[in-house]
Write a structure and sequence with these properties.
heterodimer; A: alpha+beta; Alpha-Beta Plaits; four-stranded mixed sheet; 11 strands; B: 155 residues; mainly alpha; 2 domains
Chain lengths: 254, 155
């Protein structure tokens, strides 16, 4: 009886003191393997994405890998990342022709002819992990939030499926998962980046057209990327604090 | 003043009603809002751990080298060196972290189609990227009859 009570108090005390990741770490300490405990420090990172339109070959590897890694439905309107193809006539840059067959999942069958005077390129898209996200501001229950390390995440157990955030995202990065009727979006592979791995889409990108970067790490190559190129974000006029930085972003891209 | 005193009963009742409602609200709030809500912001801190708990599916290129160092070596100096293994071989965390990886031996990529996923000609691709039209290039057979997938340069 005495031992039970002590055990109970210890467990409750631990639960109250340690939350989330810390509780996970404690499991490893108890198991005698403290070296396996997650050493991820929440406040030492500020994640961003470096996208290079000059490199994207539209192979669709990122779209497929994202769905595989995150168990995203193969439906044509469920995407955490997708690729668009732009076809721009130089004398009418305001009206590009944009297509994205199944989000680029199966690549892009040739549709245009070389030498017709048009400009053609691929634009990989995903959640911009904004520092001032409109989607977070409209959530009535705190089910979507900016994490302290700069990732916009969803709390699936809290989401009501009200769709305010789907409407609020200026980049169209959110959709309702029909299996759970809750919102789903890019998590920047939070389960990977907190273990020292890169995201699934970056892992399989053959050209390095998208690269995960940690802005709080002074040695991260993203600083050179941002310094050495002319960089732009999508819809800067929305003042979302977008952290998907594009090199070679054409003015016609919306 | 006398009027007010006479209607005092109303005020007391209203007061009790308000106090009761406030108590119900506070109790409900204490019960319903999780303990870890609001530590880092307007969200449940445990949601971070929930997101971290998702299982890995792609192992990451670092993992393959531990056992396939021959392949890693054969890619040295090739233009394919920087491509992650799983870009062609698909997600292999289950294989890489298995107790016996040979029991979960991965299916090899289809040598008739895998190369064209990236190299098929397309005007939207960056001009400098090496592209081929399979009608003009090769002999219609698998690309690997002439190119080594891990070091495709000929010569």
């Amino acid at each position: 009886m005495e031992a039970d009570r002590r055990e109970f108090l210890k467990q409750t005390g631990l639960l109250l003191v340690l939350t989330g990741a810390a509780a996970q770490a404690w499991d490893f300490v108890l198991a005698g393997e403290p070296e396996k405990a997650p050493t991820y420090k929440l406040l030492d990172h500020w994640w961003a994405m470096a996208m290079d339109i000059r490199k994207c070959i539209g192979c669709g590897n990122c779209v497929r890998a994202c769905k595989t890694e995150n168990g995203v439905l193969l439906e044509p309107d469920c995407f955490r990342t997708w690729v668009e193809r732009y076809h721009v006539h130089p004398d009418d840059p305001g009206h590009p022709e944009v297509d994205s067959p199944n989000g680029g999942y199966g690549g892009f069958p040739e549709k245009y002819k070389a030498g017709d005077g048009s400009k053609n390129f691929f634009v990989p898209k995903m959640c911009n992990h904004c520092a001032h996200s409109p989607c977070v501001q409209v959530c009535p229950v705190g089910a979507t939030f900016e994490s302290p390390d700069g990732v916009v995440l969803v709390d699936k157990t809290y989401c009501l499926g009200c769709r305010y955030c789907v409407q609020a995202c200026p980049y169209g990065c959110r959709y309702i998962d029909p299996r759970t009727e809750t919102v789903d979006k890019c998590s920047l592979c939070y389960h990977r980046i907190t273990k020292g791995l890169t995201t699934a889409c970056c892992e399989v990108c053959p050209m390095g057209a998208r690269k995960l970067g940690d802005l709080k790490d002074p040695k991260d190559p993203i600083h050179d990327f941002l310094k050495d190129h002319m960089i732009h974000v999508l819809k800067p006029e929305m003042a979302t604090g977008a952290k998907a930085y594009y090199n070679g972003l054409d003015g016609s891209v919306r | 003043m006398r009027e007010w005193l006479r209607d005092r009963e109303h005020m007391v009742r209203m007061g009790i009603l308000f106090a009761g409602a406030l108590a119900v609200f506070l109790v409900a709030r204490a019960v319903m809002v999780p303990k870890d809500f609001g530590t880092y912001g307007h969200f449940r801190t445990g949601a971070l751990a929930d997101n971290m708990a998702h299982p890995l599916v792609f192992a990451g290129r670092q993992a393959c080298g531990d056992c396939h160092d021959d392949i890693v070596a054969s890619r040295k100096g090739s233009k394919h060196e920087q491509i992650g293994c799983e870009a062609c071989h698909g997600a292999l965390e289950a294989h890489a972290s298995a107790d016996d990886p040979s029991a979960l031996k991965p299916k090899l990529p289809d040598v008739k189609t895998i190369c064209l996923v990236c190299h098929r000609e397309n005007v939207a691709k960056p001009a400098g990227f090496p592209q081929v039209d399979p009608k003009d290039h090769g002999d219609g057979g698998p690309c690997t009859s002439c190119h080594n997938p891990h070091h495709p340069e000929i010569s």
